[in-house]
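Hi F.,

I've been meaning to write this up properly since the lab meeting, where we talked about keeping a consistent format for the predictions we share between groups. The idea is simple: the sequence comes first, exactly as it goes in, then the structure tokens exactly as they come out, then a line or two of notes. No screenshots and no reformatting. I'm using this chain as the first example so we have something concrete to point to.
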Amino acid sequence: MNLSKVYKPTRLFLFPALIPLASILPWLLSLVGFLAGISHFIIKKKKRWALGLCVVFVFTCLVWRFYWHTNASAEFIFKEEDWQKILRISERKEWITPLESSALSNLVISQGLVFVASMDGKVFAYSQNTGDLIWTVQKQKPILSLAASSNYLVIGEGLHSDNTSSLTAVKLPMGPIVWNKQFSGHQEMPVFIDERAQKIWAGFGQEGLACLDLLTGRVLWNEKLGHIDSTPFVITNVHYNSDNPEKLVLVASQSDIKNPQSAFSVLNAETGKKLWDIKLPGQPWGSPLVVEKHPDLILLTTSIGQITTSKNNNDKGWSHLISLKEKKLLWSKELKDFILPTSISYNDQNVFHVLRNGTVLSLNAISGIVNWEKDLGSMILAPPAFSKEQNLLAVLTVDGNLNLIDSGSGKIKKVIPAEINSTSGGVFDKDIFFMATPAALSALKL
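Output, unedited:
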């Protein structure tokens, strides 16, 4: 039995303006010109019914343009027979399943499901144990942004060139769609979900940072810090002094897209009030990362460049360590190429950085000293994944090889031919590594 239902928002939602003024003006000017052109004829002929008909027509066009045309829709399809099938299977095994459309997002897992989104606006939920397709969500634009908590999946739609984007919240594990709303700005990177607080923090490109109600999608506050294309991070139980709130949201932004300089900002997570910031070189690609067992120390990467095989001579990256307690930058280290947005903190005070040129390195996060550095011999476009249980770092290179690297020494333990490159980051779940190529989704037992 297949159950499907199309969910549409029931009201117009402005954030902070649904459609930019530049896109409204052509419509308004065209309508004014049309009315001006026919009004003389209508008045002269005294055909009041025609004037009324024109007014109704114009009003209908406006309603369609600003409501039906701009509100995103999403279709949820749940396959009950496949869900019952995975409930009967507890064995973890290897599997591979073809993808009906090319993978675009990083993989996320929750509630026994592994999720991946595609270039054609579709989200797929597969069984972690069997690889069976359980349900799908169909949206309208390419999807880069997926974030999962224990009970919710939040889907962000829209690329960098889009003036509008949409967010969709799905109740896990079996749906339905809880809400689906459209906003101004683009939503490229995953949101930060705090299920206990029932809130979401998300960057919307030029529209800055926003806090939303997890249960309804209602905007609680919006702070225009600058251009934000990275995932914010929320840290709790901060009591360095009486001026600090208990919960802070940390984010990197760019005030002028023509100037490659970033600002690391600290805000009150409840109100959106900016408390302080630090200026940094490079564009804000990386998301704030807490150093393991050092909650007052924040790692952040900035870069110049793009996630592409094309390289410019001035492309580079920086790794930064910031103290929340002292409100200052402790050190910055310039690296040889663009740093992929996903960095990983591990083993108390170390961090992995992966450079686009094929370099993987481990830094001591306290001192900035390099522990080890490894050149994989091929460019890297997909974010790395780390297994704490196995001390393994998994990195997929452009030449189609999955490299399994020992986190302590930097030595390559195994190379698995994937035969094709991917920009989708994989994810570990204990001894199983899930990875997506453009054609298939795989579960590998390592």
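Notes:
The two ends are 36 Å apart (CA to CA).
The helical segments are 21-45, 48-68, 80-87.

If this format works for you, I'll send the rest the same way.

G.
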